[in-house]
Amino acid sequence: MRTILVVDDEVKIRDVVVSYLKREGFRALEAAAGREALHMLQRQSVDLIILDLMLPDMDGELVCQRIRTINSVPILMLTAKASENNRIKGLSMGADDYLTKPFDPREVVARVRAILRRTDDGHLLADRLSFNQGHLEIDSLKHSVFCHGEMVSLTPNEYKLLLALAKYPQRQFTREELADKVMGYDFDGDIRTIDQHVKNIRHKIEQDPKNPRYIVTVYGSGTGLQAVSND
Q: Which of 18-27, 52-61, 164-173 has the lowest mean pLDDT?
């Protein structure tokens, strides 16, 4: 049974989301504040977090940032902050998806299932792939990425995106193809989310994100991506 942590200070929202999750076979935990959620993560194994951004003790964005320093658990932001800038900010901080209030609880469950599907099936053909003489390494057994020997903290979607490129070095992908691989064929959101994930990865693994070595965007016949060749 998958465990979902619902972090929201509004009792009615928690009750509705938890009720629908349990109805669909999930185990649900609840937290009414950011520090409570962080404390629970130290004691509980969680498969996904549904995170409100406007919490009474600390901003949800800060909670997300702190989670990302210790854990790659998928995060679905569920918030009243509906602007494009807020969505981009949330994704850049490490969220895997972003849903605004008011919401249909059935969509929340559907997105939870979609995120879990995406984060379940990523793997490499080899146990470990090395690029640029070992400067970038992907360990599929540990689901870890190392840059210059240091572990890189990636969200599940960022890991899956990097993995998709690493499986086919030098191949060019369109944005739509990457959205299918990372978000799933049933994803009906904005596929430009892929652009933000690419930007996030570059800032984490590239020495100069504006002149990337590992992930290169190819302009011309639509947007494509390619990874540098492996060793």
A: 164-173
